[in-house]
Amino acid sequence: MEERGTTERVLTLLGLLQQRQIWTGPELADRLGVTPRTVRRDVERLRTLGYPVHASQGTGGGYQLGPGQDLPPLLLDDEEAIATAVSLLAGAGGAVAGAGDAALRALTKLDRVLPTRLQAEVRALSGSVESFGGGRTPVDSEVLMTLARACRDEVEAAFGYPSADQVRQRRVEPYRLVASDRRWYLLAYDLDRDGWRSFRVDRMSDVSARTWRYRPRPAPDAATYVQEGVASRVYPHQARFLVHAPADTVRTQIPASAAAVRERGSGRCEVLSGGASLDFVLVHMLLLGHDFEVLDPPELGSRCRELAEKLLSAATSPLDGR
User: Fold this and answer.
1) Rounded to whole angstroms, what are the CA distances from 150 to 143, 154, 174?
2) What tens digit of pLDDT does each residue of 74-131 get?
3) Strand pairing partners for 199?
4) What φ, ψ does residue 206 adopt, rounded to 5°?
5) Domain locations in the chain as residue ranges
6) What kind of fold does domain 2-65 have according to CATH?
7) CA gap 29, 26 in Å, rounded
């Protein structure tokens, strides 16, 4: 018990040194509830572990954690490692320019310096998650971890999932976790329906990894499959357009969950979207302000001509009383 208490106290000391630039010995002793002599011993323990703790005398002096290139492994417990990894992965799918790459770099660094015991857990997340968009509905990190482990270990997963007015049990071969601009999804092969499906993680219940291993089968691109499902397949009507504008420009105008935008070269892109009605989808395309062509469905081209005639008629009709 004494060794455990010392370890926890040294970790607390390290946390304090990271919070503020400089601490006096009496301040640290008061925070830790020990004597200044014990503080000096704990500082030596940190130095032995490789942390560069500097001490200065006189007015304004005290203990300071200095920069170092060869720090020992991060001292994180399991929950802290999981929470950090999930937060970084969420940032990797963020909408802030540059934040995604920075989060992925930070996650890579975290994986390198974590103790071996925790590296496999974090790799389970980093190796099983793809993303598009950013800022999403929070989900239980333990559920994410369970699904990520199942993806990594290639074992079946089971969970309850709402269907119509009841919750049904689903058995799947999990492939990838995908973070959209709103939610987390699992791309998996549904064993009961014999096909690829995407599932919202926040709608799952009683998630568990099973003991049955599976041999991976050819799979679609995870992020593309889920995004196209969110943007179009969930709606009763889908449409494809060829837009005469760069894909990067159109992506800034349409949320990732509202349409899938594919590069088509020569300053053009293809947009796949869906809605409760084709008129609704058509109006949104019109409001983008770019020239475009209808690719699918064929009847939408006829509808464009009908609406164009009505708009032209409205624009050329004389005003009442003039």
Assistant:
1) 11, 6, 7
2) 566 667 776 776 666 655 444 344 444 555 566 656 665 566 667 677 666 666 766 6
3) 186
4) 50, 55
5) 2-65, 78-219, 235-316
6) Arc Repressor Mutant, subunit A (1.10.10)
7) 5
Helix (H, G, I), strand (E, B), or coil: what is residue 131?
strand
The pTM of this model reads: 0.55
Paired tokens of 147: 């699904």
Is residue 233 classed as helix, strand or coil in its secondary structure? Answer: helix
Query: Cα Rg for the chain, rounded, in angstroms?
Result: 28
The residue ranking higher by pLDDT, 81 or 214, is 214
Q: Does domain 235-316 have CATH number 3.30.70.250?
A: yes
Find out whether 53 and 66 touch, Cβ atoms under 8 Å: yes
Structural tokens at position 171? 């058995």
Instruction: Return the SS3 of 179.
Output: strand
- C-beta of residue 259 within 8 angstroms of C-beta of residue 272: yes
DSSP 8-state symbol, 287:
H
What is the C-alpha to C-alpha distance for residues 183 and 200, in angstroms, rounded to an integer?
A: 7
Q: What is the mean pLDDT of residues 158-167?
A: 89
CB of 178 closer than 8 Å to CB of 226: yes
Q: Which residues, including other chains, have CB under 8 Å from residue 223's CB and lie 6 or more apart?
A: 130, 131, 132, 178
Rounded to 10 degrees, the C-alpha dihedral 307/309/311/312 comes to 160
